[in-house]
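Complex record, two chains
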Amino acid sequence: MALKRIGTQTVKLSNPPSIISTASIVGPKEGEGPLKDYFDVILEDDLWGQDSFEKSEAKLQEEAIKLAIQNADLSPNQIEYLFSGDLLNQITSSGYAARQLAIPYFGLYGACSTMTESLSLGAMIVDGGFADKVVCATSSHFSSAERQFRFPLEYGAQRPFSSQWTVTGAGATVLSSTGKGPYITYVTTGKIQDYGLVDANNMGGAMAPAAIDTISQHFKDTGYNPEDYDLIITGDLASIGKSILLDLMKKAGYDLSKNYTDCGVKIFDNVKQDTHAGGSGCGCAAVVFNGYIYKEMVKGNLNRVLLVATGALHSSTSILQDESIPGIAHAVTIDNMVF
Amino acid sequence: MENMNNKEYQKYVEQKIPKPTYAKNMLFAFIVGGLICVFGQIIGNILSNYGLNKEKVAAGTSIILVFLGAFLTGLGVYDKIGKIGGAGAAIPITGFANSIVSPAMEFKKEGFIFGVASKMFNIAGPVLVYGVGSSVIVGILYLILTKGG
């Protein structure tokens, strides 16, 4: 009997794991953005001494994980599981990062939803008594993503207004069975939503229905309302997806206009930094959560946050074969207090 | 969301996307493309002043423009010209050089055979295939029509 399940898609954690530390590392462009003061490390060079962008991304993730563990005064051999993933083929950044760490490793692919996918699974493992300390992490890199999904960096192409800018960054969270919070209290796992959009330059539009579905389901399952949260924040819907979400949630009877935003909107100044619709990539939700949100929660400026990372589960092959873009969104509730 | 079907949603999303600034794009494409062509003309004039015949001037101008396109790509400048000029930077022969040199640079990490050599024509390949292909068709039609006439 699944005693912790409430509603159709939500789990209420009865022994909520505590976030005992986080780490965030970002590239130079993110380090010039509005959230620059919240990141632990800002790189001056996005190759970070490596000879390829892929190797640089693996190093980003590895260093973020190590830093998070160090921030918790622990060592890697005290961590029982590592949950991580990224955007590259066969999630190599995560595999190569885990190779250096010798922590039992679950590799995840949720595209840009990986931050909350890893937090969901990590939180349930700790809550269930299967581990005391786990790390959840993810990364993305503008240049490694561009070469896999789009054009070479030096190619003179114009980007459409709806396009988003992949965040160079990695974030890691250490969850523990004991600690003084903030705690992960609810996990709402999303279903794939696909409204037939085929434009890979409009991810926000493709992923918004998944976020809408998961957030509405979270409210139905838990009985909460938008006002019960200090902040509801999606992963990387950016400006177009954000506006769609606000519109359609209002039609569904939920007014999110007061306390909703998106990590892809927060991370860049779209006008000054020329990032068009905003940020995207696994690293987007990862660094905004592990940098900005976590630090604001520790300060007490935010007490209850619904983090909803969003992913587009297509590939460059599926797009060429005219397949539409399946969207996914997973939500976790992060609370300073446990009731 | 439940009462919206795929078509309705797609239509709704369409009107959320900011429209491209067509007039501005066309003006910039005209200026950038025009400047590249004027520059080509200057090279051509200089070459003919050196006494080269028409055929050699055309070849020499193309060689110099292709070199400059490749060089500016290597310096990381051509992508910025392309961002402003759009088709005005892509269609002249300098854009063709950019489309070959940029993947060659990008994929050097995968080695000289499976990286540089095999990825070099990623973008320019389709242009070559259909360019050469359509010129063959036009050639055959020309042959038939002139023989018939």
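Note: Helices of chain B lie at 6-14, 22-49, 54-74, 78-85, 87-90, 93-106, 112-119, 124-148.
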